[in-house]
Amino acid sequence: MRKWMILGPVMGVVAGLDAVTFYLALDYAGRFLLGYLGGYHIPKPIGDGGDPGSAGFDRPWAIPLVVCAGALVSAWLVARFAPEAEGHGTDAAIEAVHTNPRAVRARAIVVKTISSALTIGAGGSAGREGPAAQISAGIGSLLTKWLILSDDDGRILVSLGIGSGIGAIFGAPLGGAVLAASILYRRDFEYKVLIPGFITSAVAFGVFGSILGFDPLFGYVADDYRFSHPLELGWFVVLGAVAALFGYLYARIFYGTVALTERLPGGKVIKPALGGLAVGLLALLLPPVLASGYGWAHKATAADTLMQIPLWMVLILPLAKIVATSLSIGTGGSGGIFGPGVVIGAFVGAAVWRLGEVFHLPGIPDTPGVFVVVGMMACFGGVAHAPLAVMIMVAEMTGSFTVVPCALVAVGVSYLLINLTDATMYRAQRLDRESAAAERTN
To answer: What's the domain count of the chain?
Structure first.
């Protein structure tokens, strides 16, 4: 513990500063590429400023071109300078923990920052957590080399980088600490990471928040919700099952796109650019597929703003966001898959609420907030095989710990159903600590 009382805060400060740097790079890229060149401002959640966004496209013809160009330049940078920066980033960080905690190159950190900012800033459907995880894990890898740490300590330090980077940029320090301990395995928990993770994530969150603010990303969504009747849990069994279905589809379509892309002709630069062009064209019909989509997910949390979105769009958005993310990142682009998973889950919850409201089904709450928040938790928590971590993170991101009784049911149902399959969003995960140790021994 004396060792991690020193290394933990050091890693936390670095992870917090890395998260600030990437956040600002992403913000400036978005303002210039989509805002100035594309003439479109995406909606933003409260934690990102609360901008309601543009009412429509000023220059619709520019949107596909901007998304394509951002993907093209991003892919060229990755192919030319750091091929390991391709994709969502979290798998690369997890793989470094399991195989070689000294493996991440310094240039990969720089390239990942720039390429992801270009991809997402230009409108590619991706999240900011994967790059934040890979960047901070990369710093942990460099520290492992510079401080000549043992392999075991290096694995802990890189894991701390993953959790603190994600926790800082999402304003979810407790969730980040638990994620660092749970994301490495599909059916196990790295207990040695947990206590140092508390220290590291708290420091990273303090650094990030002192510069960019401590407000939850989505504000306080369902903080007034109170679980009052056991029969309400029936709705969350349904929501958990639907969330599991879309989590399964997310993994299958995403990695199906990865496999198909590898078989198609064309280079590492052209294929992500074509994927970006397809996303830009899809966005002309469905603007919420652009960039992270957090602002649209925030709109779904309140009845007045959700009702302004056509019902057909709410129903189709979960699948459309899966397709857009697969085209943006599954073709070789650079960006995270956690963020889109949260948005997919948000609209799964919103769709269930809208259908219940249309047909006047019993037990539907007056506002969709609790369904949206629990949908976020259940959809990605199951398919990421990190149900507790994702549940805590979303509760912190939405200021909604009062939904936990309902979330326990929905997330549990989703996780149990996903475990009946081999679907996972993080293919670098090992089954458990025993199998990972046996692999290192061999």
So the answer is: 2
Q: What angle do CA 159, 396, 14 make, to 5 degrees?
A: 40
Percentage of the chain modeled with pLDDT above 70: 100
If you average pLDDT over residues 183-212, what whole number do you get?
94
| Residue 117 within a domain | yes
Could you count the other beta carbons within 10 Å of the beta carbon of residue 90? Answer: 29
User: Token digits for 414?
Assistant: 């989703």
Lowest mean pLDDT among 50-54, 275-279, 384-388, 416-420: 50-54
pLDDT of residue 300: 95
Residues in the chain: 442
Q: Which helix (H) or strand (E) segment is 409 a member of? A: helix 404-418
Between CA 243 and CA 439 the distance in angstroms is 33
The number of angstroms, rounded, from the C-alpha of 331 to the middle of its chain's C-alpha atoms is 18
Q: Are residues 365 and 301 located together in one domain of the fold? A: yes
CA 319-321-327 angle, 5° bins: 105
User: Does residue 428 sit within a domain?
Assistant: no
Residue pair 111/73 in contact by the 8 Å Cβ criterion: no
In a domain, 174, yes or no: yes
Phi then psi for 185, rounded to 5 degrees? -130, 155
Residue 245 and residue 323: Cα distance in Å, rounded? 15
